[in-house]
Amino acid sequence: MTRILIKTNRIISAVLSKYKFSTAAKSVASVQIKGKEFVADDYTNVTPKIISYLDKNLHLQKNNPLSIVRQRIVNYFYSSFTHRGHPAFSVYDNLPPIVTTKQNFEDLLIPADHPSRAKSDCYYINRDTLLRAHMTAHQSELLRSGLDNFLMIGDVYRRDEIDSTHFPVFHQVDAVRSQRQEELFPDKPELQIFEPTFDKTNPHTNHINDPMKQSCHTLEATKLMETQLKTHLIGLTQALFGEDIKYRWVDAYFPFTHPSWELEIFYENDWMEVLGCGIVRNEILVNAGPSNTIAYAFGLGLERLAMALYKIPDIRLMWSTDSGFLTQFENVDLNASITYKPVSSYPQCTNDMSFWLPPTYTIDTFISNDFYDLVRDIGGDIIEQVKLKDKFVHPKSKKHSLCYSIVYRHLERTLTQTEVNQVHKEIEKAVVDAYGVVIR
To answer: Which domains occur in the chain, in start order?
Structure first.
């Protein structure tokens, strides 16, 4: 208990200062991250707790299940694609997580009004800089450097709900494979990547009105790339889950690919999405340099795969340093069938928090993700889940009220109700100070 209270007291002032700024527009001069100072502004919403996850690199930590899955994926691409006896794909697994909004959005043709840009979805350092929300943020810079086949692997940061399958930091593998005409059609020089009527000097004349292809591409080129893409990803899925895994393709939409698909597998009597993919928009390729290629891209989450492969019930376990967890993945064959065995089960403690909102908020304008971040910053890793339990508008006073249920559970020991109550009180205090609410 003492350890948790010391930790709580140590971060509470920093947390409150951050949230007062983000919700009440108070002046905060700068944000310090990894020894570098960033100017703060009205977009700044990154929290001390989130900053503490930088450079953990779980995907590179020996005996972590994420690292095992990462290596299995890399091995598949190394063995499946070679050039003159060497792997055709290059791997970048230590790219810096701080990116510009141009890298994260504009370079990928994500519109200014797209919901993925919202402050409620991303961790902004300031209006122009954020913690990457996807590894695809590095796609254009790698294309610009002259690469054509590459994997990008690392941690990404998104504001989200709190439960056993969601965490504000997770890990992705994104990939791009591009081909020139002579590579795509080595034996058929009469076939073309681009439609004869397409003006390569003006890539923005490309359109995506046809669900089958981009207007710049020929149907033959698109279909051949689609076949390659789906064949390679089915092969990857079978390498991970076995030859008999059931799968299906679902049409999808992503701003940076067209056409686009999601791959689902039949897992535990239900369909589960494992990745998204598609043909890279030609505008992205031209803006990054290569104007004579066609490319496909895909992205997948390591946590989702690892939890399914090894039956890991709680995403927080990926961050555990407990030897009882890590030794289950120690010095194992990469392709071994592993089923996670719980070290022990500890009981949950659930406390509700109800409060009246000040007049500046309504039950519809209060952003739950702001509240989730505040709870996580103070409660840390003992927060298992936060749920919006009830919304209420008083019929006479017209005051708006919210009730959240907070589930506390430690992964390595039993929490006492006394220490949970203490952390709960600190969260109440933080909510009052940050938002001006009145605890019910």
So the answer is: 2-25+345-439 (3.30.70.380), 58-93+134-310 (3.30.930.10)
Task: Pick the most confident of 19-23, 216-220, 289-293, 405-409.
Answer: 216-220
pLDDT at 28 (0 to 100)? 62
Residues paired with 173 in a beta bridge: 153, 300
Name the residue with tokens 């089923």.
339
N-term to C-term CA, the chain: 26
Give the pLDDT mean for 299-305. Answer: 97
Nearest to 77 by CA among 10, 152, 15: 152
| In contact, 346 and 413? CB cutoff 8 Å | yes
The mean predicted confidence, pLDDT, of the chain is: 90
Structure tokens at 202: 């003006």
* pLDDT over threshold 90, residue 289: no
Whether residue 101 has pLDDT greater than 90? yes
How would DSSP label each residue in 124-189? EEETTEEE-SSGGGGHHHHHHTT-SEEEEEEEEE----BBTTB-SEEEEEEEEEEEEHHHHSTT-T
State whether the Cα torsion 19-23-29-30 is positive or negative: positive
